[in-house]
């Protein structure tokens, strides 16, 4: 493949800065846990279901632990201790607490409680590992598509209608199906329960919905001879719980950014940094490919001027991902084709940006997003914009290719919008399959110089961020021109300082086994 | 001027019929595409043709038909539209004001208000899309049109997305807002209508509806719809900060002249 001449020294310097930036945040945050980390822990220990008021039992149990002043010790040992003492399962403990029949206390023997929590956690890890192995077997058995994988979205607001559309999309050629969540779910501090048939701009992410969609895609995948990957949104106030549910139900990809919630949903910074660590750890262990959200920066900031902020953020996301045990091929680092179509040579700059990202992250499973900001409602022009986006994707060897819809900016896609988008991408990918091996970037040419310029700016901005620290940099509006503060945003009340004897069995089990 | 206008009013308005144009005046040629929830066969294709007839297209022809799998099929058709409309009888409501440039607006605010105009904006309720409100309010603006934050005679407070109506109203009261600017992007199942109605009811209940200029914007918003919902103005796509600000100072001046 034709390569741009880039200064490896610059790439190394940028990556080193990003490493120090991420580790500093991680070190500062490791003294805290959050309510949703503890709820995810309980879910992984087998707590599920809702009470009469549709409040999830993991929420009831964690609230109870907070009221009893126990949460700072970690939910796992307290609940495991109660399980041993009363000879009940985790679910029965949760039900008894919710019914007001049981008040939890510190375990009589911390050591025994921890051992029993670890045994329960180990069983869940076996289940998740088995799901991971099953995925590998299925891919081996039914096969998978070559990259770029075609990524499609369904968003009817009803899981059963979503299934109809997802099956049709897979038959038409989609390799990845993402089920959009209801707008607003990211700000719910609980995960809804059961199959859902309502929502706006999508239906809720629930464990049952995950299970239903996974089963439908397995079925259609076997029929068409291609494993269809399932994606959902591991973001918002319940990142760790969504990760736990996805791991149990064999999702394949998760939108899971280290900073997206802070910037675009005004979720508290501490909360997000803690939650992203735990959720990514679960995703890493489950063999899930995460997708990061840098493409979103370009919907508010200018795609040309802010190109270096995308690369800087990708490098930071990469380092956070490493800390959580993710491997490069699980890193769906995001970027997008969002340069204003009126800009002369804009296509060249898109090629430069996409190729730069490819070369800086040679092993990553890059996620490339279609034009949205400059889609107008002129569907005919939009189809052309999407075709040009398809060209860049195949030319620069992207991995996850989110299909552009000609009706972007009008409505959630109709079935024919997806159908035409797949045709468009397949045509371009087929007719240009080996083009990248036949053309070379001109040394010192416009594209190469543009890539070098963005790389240089990235080194600079990461050095600046390193100087002041990531929270302060976000405070200055470094990403997407949006500014957030350490103590602002939603969800700070769910951040809990750990006591010195805090215990959670999952990090030891999952970080050791994530490979 | 007034003589002209009187003369205009007494004259019968000349009819001005229009219909789609393909390559010959009044040929009525249109294209359309759609999906039928049935597998493709000759009957399905004929059904597509007959549907076009029912829609008022003469001589419809299915120029492309394709099976999509899972019991769906896709059609592209051409036909000749039977209908025509009289342009002379159409009068679309639009806010009546002159759009000024940024300097002109700043000067007008300084002259008429003698203080900064306070604009509080948000994308309300479950709608998580900041793109619209940011385009109008943020310093950077959109498409080369600077946002309200860049106007030195405007105090622009952008509360972002997913803001409860209560929260917006409380902030508007606290900041003594002259203008409330609401964005709604998500329109699935007409949720934007519920959200917008809720906000306007809340302002009535708080007794401050008359004190603020209430403006809504979004890709599916028209001025006509906004008026129906009890808003002072609505702005759709291709509207920029200067359109909104020009309307606001025009409306403020009109109200305070009375």
From TrEMBL, chain A:
TM annotation in the entry: none
One Pfam family named in its UniProt record: Lys-AminoMut_A
Highest taxon, organism lineage: Bacteria
Cross-referenced InterPro entries: Cbl-dep_enz_cat, Lys-AminoMut_A, Lys-AminoMut_asu_sf
Protein name: D-lysine 5,6-aminomutase subunit alpha
Domain D-Lysine 5,6-aminomutase alpha subunit per the UniProt entry, residue ranges: 4-508
Gene3D superfamilies: D-Lysine 5,6-aminomutase alpha subunit
């Amino acid at each position: 493949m034709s390569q741009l001449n880039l200064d490896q020294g610059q790439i190394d310097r940028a990556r080193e800065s990003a490493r120090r930036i991420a580790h500093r945040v991680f070190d500062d945050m490791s003294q805290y846990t959050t309510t949703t980390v503890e709820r995810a822990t309980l879910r992984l220990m087998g707590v599920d279901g809702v009470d009469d008021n549709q409040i999830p039992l993991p929420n009831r149990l964690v609230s109870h632990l907070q009221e009893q002043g126990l949460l700072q010790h970690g939910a796992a040992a307290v609940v495991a201790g109660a399980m041993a003492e009363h000879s009940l399962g985790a679910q029965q403990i949760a039900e008894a607490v919710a019914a007001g029949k049981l008040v939890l206390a510190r375990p009589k023997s911390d050591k025994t409680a921890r051992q029993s929590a670890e045994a329960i956690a180990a069983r869940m890890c076996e289940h998740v590992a088995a799901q991971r192995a099953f995925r590998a077997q299925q891919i081996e058995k039914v096969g998978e598509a070559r990259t770029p994988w075609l990524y499609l979205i369904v968003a009817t607001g009803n899981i059963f209608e979503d299934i109809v559309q997802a099956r049709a999309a897979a038959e038409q050629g989609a390799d990845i199906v993402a089920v959009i969540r209801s707008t607003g779910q990211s700000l719910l501090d609980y995960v809804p329960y059961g199959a859902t048939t309502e929502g706006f701009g999508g239906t809720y992410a629930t464990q049952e919905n995950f299970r239903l969609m996974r089963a439908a895609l397995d079925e259609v995948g076997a029929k068409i001879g291609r494993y269809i990957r399932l994606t959902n949104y591991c973001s918002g106030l319940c990142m760790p719980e969504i990760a736990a549910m996805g791991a149990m139900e064999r999702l394949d990809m998760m939108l899971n950014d280290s900073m997206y919630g802070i910037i675009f949903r005004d979720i508290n910074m501490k909360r997000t940094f803690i939650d992203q660590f735990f959720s990514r750890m679960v995703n890493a262990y489950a063999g899930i490919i995460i997708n990061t959200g840098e493409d979103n920066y370009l919907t508010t900031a200018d795609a040309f001027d802010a190109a270096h902020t995308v690369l800087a953020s990708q490098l930071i996301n990469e380092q956070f991902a490493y800390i959580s045990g993710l491997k490069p091929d699980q890193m769906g680092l995001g970027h997008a084709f969002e340069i204003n179509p009126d800009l002369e040579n804009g296509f060249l700059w898109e090629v430069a940006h996409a190729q730069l990202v490819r070369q800086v992250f040679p092993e990553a499973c890059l996620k490339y997003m279609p034009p949205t900001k400059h889609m107008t409602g002129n569907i005919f022009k939009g189809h052309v914009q999407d075709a040009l986006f398809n060209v860049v994707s195949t030319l620069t060897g992207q991995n996850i290719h989110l299909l552009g819809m000609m009706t972007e900016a009008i409505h959630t896609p109709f079935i024919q919008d997806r159908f035409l988008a797949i045709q468009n991408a397949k045509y371009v990918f087929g007719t240009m399959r080996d083009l990248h091996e036949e053309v070379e970037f001109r040394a010192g040419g416009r594209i190469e110089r543009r890539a070098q310029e963005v790389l240089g700016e990235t080194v600079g901005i990461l050095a600046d961020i390193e100087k002041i620290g990531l929270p302060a940099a976000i405070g200055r509006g470094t990403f997407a021109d949006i500014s957030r503060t350490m103590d602002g945003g939603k969800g700070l009340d769910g951040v809990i300082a750990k006591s010195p004897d805090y215990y959670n069995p999952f990090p030891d089990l999952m970080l050791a086994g994530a490979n | 001027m007034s003589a002209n206008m009187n003369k205009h009013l007494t004259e019968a308005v000349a009819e001005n019929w229009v219909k789609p144009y393909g390559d010959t005046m009044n040929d009525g040629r249109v294209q359309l595409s759609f999906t039928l929830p049935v597998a493709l066969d000759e009957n399905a294709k004929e059904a597509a043709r007959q549907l076009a007839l029912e829609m008022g297209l003469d001589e419809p022809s299915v120029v492309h038909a394709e099976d999509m799998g899972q019991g769906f099929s896709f059609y592209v058709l051409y036909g000749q539209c039977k209908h025509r409309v009289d342009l002379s009888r159409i009068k679309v409501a639009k806010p009546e004001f002159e759009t000024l440039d940024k300097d002109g607006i700043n000067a007008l605010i300084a002259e008429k208000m003698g203080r900064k105009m306070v604009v509080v904006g948000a994308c309300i309720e479950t709608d998580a899309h900041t793109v619209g409100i940011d385009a109008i309010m943020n310093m950077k603006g959109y498409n080369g049109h600077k946002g309200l934050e860049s106007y030195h005679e405007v105090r622009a407070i952008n509360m972002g997305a997913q803001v409860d109506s209560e929260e917006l109203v409380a902030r508007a009261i606290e900041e003594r807002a002259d203008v409330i600017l609401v964005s709604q992007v998500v329109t699935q199942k007409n949720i934007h209508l519920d959200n917008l109605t809720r906000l306007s009811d809340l302002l009535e209940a708080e007794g401050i509806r008359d004190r603020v200029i209430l403006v809504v914007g979004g890709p599916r918003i028209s001025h006509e719809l906004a008026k129906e919902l009890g808003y002072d103005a609505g702005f759709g796509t291709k509207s920029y900060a200067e359109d909104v600000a020009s309307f606001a100072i025009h409306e403020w001046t009109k109200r305070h002249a009375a």
